[in-house]
Amino acid sequence: MRKRVAVVILVLLQSALTYGGNAETLPQEYWRHPLAPQGEAPKDWSAEEKSLRPQECGLCHADKLAEWRTSLHAKAFSPGLVGQLLTFDSEDVHSCLNCHAPLAEQKQAFDAARAAGKGHLPTAQGLAAQGNSCGGCHLRNHRRFGPPQRDGGAVGVSPADGSHGGVTRSRDFERSDFCAACHQFPQDMAINGKPLENTMVEWQASPAGRNGQSCQSCHMPDRRHLWRGIHDPAMVAAGVTAQFSAETGFARFRLTNTATGHAFPTYVTPKVMLKAVGLDENGAVIPGSAREHVIQRRVAFIDGDWIERFDSRLPPGQSAGLDMPWPASGRVRFWLEVHPDDFYDHDVYDGLLRDLPKSSAAARLIAEADAQARRNRFTLFEREVTRP
Ligand code: HEC
Ligand code: HEC
Ligand code: HEC
Ligand code: HEC
Ligand code: HEC
């Protein structure tokens, strides 16, 4: 009996949360994967209001559409993803799409394209091709959710006579937890104590986390939908500080994580290298003089288990260094090399390219992703240091 009362209370509580009411917090299940289908849109809405496509949102929110298009969230339904999806069963496909194309309608669209033998064609993928788009973050049951109103900070439900029946505004959009649904794995998936995605936990332990400086404040300045990260040279340069010095016996390159609100870098995918070569009197590289220091969390999947080989990433405030003994010329060149997709490039794509039938659509997509991963590499902070 007591149990039944508890169940009833729980159900009531859940429906109150689902409804949202005037509460300024988002419904508890807002980010529970898989997301529920939107259902029928109100009959009196225009086709633009009913649409789940970012292009239609952009008719009235042009700035957001333009910014989002430049971001990796817009490119999350990528060749590297789809090339793998084509080799998976439907259940595994859906688990990937929870983060890469989260709406139920996107899963349906991809399933339909695949059933028609056209899963590899962006023109056939429909809404799925839009990746992590407006609807995944802003739409539940055709209702728009967003942050407190820009002018005045109003929260809660706005009058229903506005476009798309108004909006429910919540401070949760300004909180880091909003991003955790896709950027933090649970602790029970830890490898050597840390899940493969541990950004939220790293952030909580950082000065930024302690000062309440949210993910959004760095990745969506002034609410701009940019989400720059390790693929963007300017963002990386803003997050770390490079120092060069001429010491008595050697030249030194130090890199410090000064403004990245989590480990630099946070994921297992990038590889960052401090590099040095000695130069001769004419400025030519001295053969065999190259040195490097690797910053990376290196993991491997072996016999069905993940293992960590090493973790040399820089938590906030920490530094890495590379010393180079002076060559006779007293000239040393340093630089930082960033390979944002190193793990996919070597551990995932190379294996798939070996195993997949050469002319298959999946192999073509993975080859495209592999080439893109190589193009994504860049260098920063190139500098020559000379002996005084
Ligand atoms: C026909 C024009 C129109 C379309 C199409 C449209 N919106 Fe809106 N949107 C508005 C207007 C007008 C407001 C302000 C509503 C209010 O104050 O009640 C708004 C408000 C919002 C807000 C809250 C911002 C604020 O004012 O605080 C979000 C978030 C939002 N829309 C998301 C979307 C998404 C996502 C889509 C596409 C799925 C979309 N909108 C499509 C006109 C539109
Ligand atoms: C629905 C899942 C989802 C949510 C919610 C989400 N992200 Fe992402 N995010 C992704 C995926 C997937 C990618 C990788 C896209 C790709 O390259 O395929 C990504 C990429 C990024 C990147 C680019 C990383 C790089 O390598 O340069 C940044 C930065 C980022 N997200 C920040 C955020 C922030 C901040 C929030 C919260 C406001 C957030 N994300 C919310 C799924 C999500
Ligand atoms: C919990 C959310 C989440 C899930 C589930 C997820 N991913 Fe991702 N994925 C991300 C984020 C965040 C990134 C960007 C950071 C990175 O590179 O690790 C990413 C990046 C990628 C990339 C490299 C960027 C690109 O788009 O080319 C590939 C490929 C990828 N994921 C494939 C998959 C596949 C295949 C699955 C299912 C087996 C999957 N992901 C499941 C969050 C997720
Ligand atoms: C990965 C999640 C995510 C995606 C995808 C996304 N948004 Fe947002 N959006 C947010 C967050 C979080 C905020 C609030 C940021 C803050 O308060 O710092 C926001 C804010 C907004 C606002 C309010 C802006 C303001 O100035 O008050 C609008 C309007 C909006 N988004 C529309 C869109 C549209 C249109 C798209 C697609 C083109 C889109 N969003 C894609 C997460 C997302
Ligand atoms: C103090 C500013 C700051 C805060 C706060 C912050 N980031 Fe970052 N983030 C950066 C900088 C700078 C980079 C580029 C350097 C790098 O990749 O580590 C970055 C990179 C990333 C990347 C790229 C992938 C990678 O391996 O580095 C993702 C994803 C990301 N951040 C997500 C988040 C999420 C989610 C949060 C909140 C839990 C967050 N960030 C909080 C500054 C910040």
Automatic annotation (TrEMBL):
InterPro entries: Cyt_c-552/4, Multihaem_cyt_sf. Residues 146-169 are annotated as: Disordered. Keywords: Signal. Residues 1-20 form the signal peptide. Residues 57-112 form the Cytochrome c-552/4 domain. The keyword Signal applies. It comes from the Bacteria. This is Cytochrome c-552/4 domain-containing protein.
